[in-house]
Specification:
The complex is a heterodimer of chains A (305) and B (475).
Chain A lengths: L7 H26 L1 E2 L6 E6 L3 E4 L3 E2 H20 L14 H24 L3 H5 L2 H14 L1 H4 L23 H10 L1 E5 L3 H4 L2 H14 L6 H8 L3 H7 L25 H10 L1 E5 L8 H15 L8
Antiparallel strand pairs in A: 2-3, 5-6
Helix pairs in contact in A: 1-2, 3-13, 5-13, 7-13, 9-10, 9-12
Chain B lengths: L2 H7 L11 E2 L1 E2 L12 H19 L4 E2 L2 E2 L1 E4 L4 E4 L2 E3 L4 H22 L2 H6 L1 H17 L2 H9 L4 H26 L5 H9 L5 H21 L1 H7 L1 H7 L8 E4 L1 H4 L24 H5 L19 H13 L6 E4 L1 H6 L3 H6 L4 H22 L4 E7 L6 E3 L3 E12 L5 E8 L5 E2 L4 E4 L4 E11 L6 E11 L5 E10 L2
Helix pairs in contact in B: 2-5, 3-17, 5-7, 5-9, 7-9
The chains are: A mainly alpha (305), B alpha+beta (475).
């Protein structure tokens, strides 16, 4: 503990604590020796407000021994636990240690459960209601913050319950995404596409790919400029999961629909990141989550979810 | 630990010293004499009633489970046909308020009735005293035994008493734990010596608390520890029935022969036999008037009535009476009329209303609870088909012991519909979180926050709950 630059305050607190405890003992000893003059009317002889008298109702002696017990207890406590300044106590207890012990205990307790899960394939796990209940809890605690409780995501956060995958939807790919994370990168392409007018034409062409409302004349003009995009998204705009290039030909708009959204994307580019979970979750947990996410869009053979 | 050993530790300062009294008082052991009579019978009736319920209830079955079981680990509380959740804490509050009010009521009418007849401290002391009496004999025999030097007989008697005490105490501890762990499982675990650490701890803890409180501390608990004893005294008024000695009739006290005429000896009715002091479990002399130590057990009333009978005097030298009645020499009917004073009527009315409200809320209780939590990921999103979507998490708590299918519906906005699975299955006494998606057609309502209502109902429609939430529409 280095909260302070020197040990003075530690010694100060420890001394104050001990002086307080010893003071309590001395007080107890002094009052136990004190004698009250015996009076026939069983009062302490203390009269105030003219006629109010204090009746003599002494404490039981065993009560005094309780005080002694608390003093002894507090001393033993101060030896065992941190309390005397910076002294850590003989038992070396700390909140951090307790936390670590609790985590280790939980891990040990859950080990057989997770061992059972790890032994199964993704497909088997997705069909196991018990495993999926655990998987759901993991998802709620670790994934739902971005992807939503129903895993359908929101703007910028992919929907995990459909069959559209930026990086592939096989169990292996999902596990890779979870373990290592992903970094989706759309570079600013304005220069490669051409004039701002060209960029808007390309945007109309992209809108036409999924058959939504668009300006067909501009789309036709933009088609030739799309070659700049085709390197990643493909000539047909269907994307490439190997490099995380989204499919532009479906009606899924992760970063927003409409000409303006597409123009912005072409002009400014975008970096979107899924953080790696390897350090946060165990391998077994990632395996289980893989099955949970896979199961959201794939119905396993004997699926009863 | 036996009594003599305990007493050996205590006196660091001799009990009485020349030059004054210590600020700490040595505990004087009290040897209450056995008593019989009307109030003793009432007390035993209450001992039997309360203990029959306490010891018996864990063994009562309700269907496939224990009728009364507080499953702390699963956080489900079973009370006969009811399954209560931690969310039902209000019932406990109601029960405690009703208990407090009935305490006020009884105390205003007849003083410390609770203390004298039903308080566990009194009840277990009574049971422990009964064992003590069976083993060691009544007051005189016990005094003699404690005063006697060490002998084999003394050792055997003391050991036997403590073994019986510990037996009762441990059974009490076991019973207490059996309200939290099914009794039938617990006894099986015990027989197979497979009881869990916490179960053993609580059986021992509660057992030793019983042993210590009923065997050793006894009246010390009432005198020094119990806060209720003190505030109860503050709830007395001059029309409260309390155990009192009638000094006008009793004084001047004095011994006399049974044939003698007290009037001729200018004596009152009190024969100064001190039996009222000998039977007192808190060791006071009721003839000194109302004292805070008096727990209102009426043992002195019983024993004094017996003496009066033998002497051929009228009963009731010590009796339940009020301070007003004593001062004004009221008749019994005059005194009882004062029972119906405003204070008592107000307590009764409050208690009645509260009990009815509690009963009504239990009868009308829905065996279903729902909590709605808006999803924390996104305020709102656009879904396929030009729909605006909000996501909620619903915690659906099934308070029945059968699996149930619940239908989820939502209302409050034009075109509001549940887009996710509208039917959920929840297992018996299970609570389940489900993600629910609500959609409205894009542009069908203004931007902003709109109050909506979730309706969740079981198949029969008997259990139905409405919960408020909001639907957010972005600008």
């Amino acid at each position: 503990m280095s909260d302070f630059t020197n040990n003075f305050w530690s010694w100060y607190v420890a001394a104050l604590t001990l002086v307080g405890i010893i003071g309590a003992l001395v007080l107890l000893w002094a009052t136990a020796r004190k004698k009250m003059p015996e009076r026939s009317d069983n009062t302490t002889g203390h009269v105030w407000d003219e006629d109010l008298r204090e009746a003599n109702n002494p404490m039981p002696r065993w009560w005094m021994w309780l005080f002694v017990f608390t003093v002894i207890y507090s001393l033993l406590y101060l030896i065992a636990y941190p309390g005397l300044g910076a002294y850590p106590g003989e038992m070396k207890w700390s909140t951090r240690g307790e936390y670590e012990a609790a985590m280790a205990g939980a891990e040990k307790e859950l080990a057989p459960l997770y061992a059972g899960f790890s032994a199964k394939s993704t497909e088997q796990l997705a069909g196991d209601a018990n495993a999926m209940a655990v998987g759901e809890r993991l998802f709620m605690n670790n994934c739902a913050q971005c992807h939503g409780s129903d895993a359908r995501g929101s703007k910028g956060f992919p929907n995990l319950s459909d069959s559209d995958w930026l990086h592939g939807g096989s169990p292996e790919k999902i596990k890779e995404t979870l373990t290592l994370g992903r970094k989706g990168q759309m570079p600013p392409m304005a220069a490669a596409v051409g004039t701002p007018e060209d960029v808007r034409n390309v945007a109309q062409y992209v809108l036409s790919l999924s058959g939504g409302p668009h300006d067909s004349v501009r789309a036709q003009l933009g088609k030739s400029k799309f070659t700049a995009c085709a390197a990643c998204h493909g000539m047909d705009g269907k994307g490439n999961t190997a490099m995380g290039a989204p499919n532009l030909a479906d009606d899924i708009w992760l970063h927003g629909w409409g000409e303006q959204a597409i123009v912005d994307m072409v002009n400014k580019g975008k970096i979107n990141e899924m953080p790696a979970q390897a350090g946060k979750l165990t391998e077994a947990q990632i395996h289980l989550l893989t099955a949970y996410v896979w199961g959201l869009s794939n119905k396993p053979p004997a699926a009863k979810l | 630990m036996t009594q003599p050993a305990l007493r050996k530790i205590i006196p660091i300062v001799p009990a009485s010293q020349p030059g004054g009294e210590s600020l700490y008082e040595a505990q004087k052991k009290i040897y209450p004499r056995s008593v019989s009579g009307l109030f003793a019978r009432w007390r035993w009736a209450f001992v039997a009633l309360t203990q029959l319920i306490f010891y018996g209830l864990p063994w009562l079955q309700w269907g496939q489970r224990q009728a009364v079981l507080f499953d702390l680990e699963a956080r489900r509380f079973y009370l006969f046909g009811y399954v209560l959740y931690p969310q039902d804490f209000i019932y406990l509050t109601g029960l405690l308020v009703a208990s407090a009010l009935s305490l006020f009521l009884f105390t205003a009418v007849a003083g410390r009735l609770w203390c004298g007849f039903t308080c566990p401290q009194t009840v277990y002391t009574e049971i422990f005293l009964w064992i003590e009496r069976k083993v060691e004999g009544d007051r005189t025999a016990r005094l003699k035994l404690d005063g006697a030097p060490f002998s084999l007989e003394k050792l055997v008697k003391k050991w036997f008493k403590h073994i019986l005490w510990i037996g009762v105490a441990m059974w009490t501890g076991f019973t207490f734990v059996a309200y939290f762990v099914p009794a039938r499982e617990l006894i099986l675990q015990f027989l197979q010596t497979k009881m869990g650490g916490w179960e053993i701890f609580w059986v021992l803890f509660y057992g030793f608390a019983t042993y210590g409180n009923a065997g050793f501390l006894r009246e010390q608990v009432c005198k020094y520890m119990c806060p209720y004893a003190r505030f109860q005294s503050a709830m007395f008024d001059k029309d409260t029935l309390i155990v009192s000695y009638d000094p006008a009739r009793g004084e001047p006290r004095g011994a006399r022969s049974r044939q003698a005429d007290p009037a001729a000896l200018s004596l009152g009715a009190c024969v100064d036999c001190t039996l009222c002091v000998q039977v007192c479990p808190t060791g006071i002399d009721i003839r000194k008037g109302l004292q805070y130590e008096c727990i209102g057990c009426a043992a002195c009333v019983d024993v004094c009535d017996g003496v009066m009978d033998k002497m051929g005097y009228a009963r009731g030298l010590i009796r339940f009476t009020t301070q007003n009645a004593l001062a004004g020499k009221w008749s019994a009917s005059q005194m009882l009329r004062r029972v119906l004073r405003p204070r008592v009527l107000v307590y009764t009315a409050l208690l009645g209303v509260l009990c009815l409200a509690l009963l009504w809320s239990l009868v009308a209780r829905m065996p279903l609870k729902v909590d709605v939590v808006r999803d924390r990921a996104a305020l709102s999103r656009i879904a396929a088909g030009g729909k605006l979507e909000n996501v909620y998490r619903l915690q659906i708590m099934n308070a029945t012991e059968q699996a149930q299918r619940y239908r989820i519906a939502a209302a409050g906005l034009e075109g509001l519909a549940v887009a996710s699975e509208a039917e959920v299955k929840v297992g018996p006494t299970e609570s389940r979180w489900v993600a629910v998606r609500l959609q409205i057609p894009y542009g069908s309502a203004e931007a902003g926050s709109h109050p909506i209502v979730f309706r969740v109902a079981d198949e029969s429609g008997r259990a139905h709950v409405e919960e408020k939430s909001v639907f957010l529409i972005p600008r």
